[in-house]
Design brief:
21% strand, seven-stranded mixed beta sheet, 169 residues, 6 helices, alpha/beta
């Protein structure tokens, strides 16, 4: 695993919106406008409000999860990152021009390279995410906590910033 990225912010600050925008940007990278529109429509119709999405991107598997506003949510997100069958129902995979459900039994075919989770500004969700970074194997990931308020309040700009971080890993 190369990195664990935490997008932190207070309740209702747009973390899930930002992660959905990030998913769109990663999935549409280098694609035609028609494909981008198909991806956006699919994400908008299937992935809100909470998401567990796997995105193959430049030879890496990016895992996005947005439930982590509380202890139960971050535990579900970490189980998803660790590919454990607990806490989450639907996993979506973004491919060339579509989004579809990924059967849990196939999740092991897409081991995570980068995990991105929403978490609160401080407290148990950040602590649990940090604990996960320390036990993730086979490599120790880079831990990045991106505070939403430190960049801008525009979710689109934050999503672009996160995409830049991911592209440079």
């Amino acid at each position: 695993m190369k990195a664990v990225i935490g997008l932190s912010g207070c309740e209702d600050s747009g973390k899930t919106t930002t992660l959905v925008l990030l998913a769109k940007k990663l999935a549409s990278d280098g694609k035609t406008p028609t494909v981008i529109k198909n991806i956006e429509d699919a994400i908008d119709s299937y992935a809100n409000p909470d998401i567990e999405i796997v995105i193959p991107y430049r030879g890496m598997n990016i895992y996005l999860a947005s439930r982590a506003d509380n202890l139960e949510g971050i535990e579900c997100d970490i189980a998803f990152f660790e590919q454990k069958d607990e806490g989450w129902d639907d996993i979506w995979i973004l491919t060339e021009n579509s989004i579809s459900r990924l059967d849990k039994k196939f999740l092991k075919k897409y081991p995570p390279d980068i995990c991105v989770a929403a978490c609160r500004s401080r407290g148990i969700t950040c602590s649990k995410l940090r604990e996960f970074t320390l036990r993730a194997k086979p490599h120790y990931p880079i831990e990045l906590i991106v505070r939403k308020n430190n960049i801008t309040e525009d979710p689109n700009l934050i999503a672009e910033y996160l995409k830049t971080i991911i592209s440079n890993l």
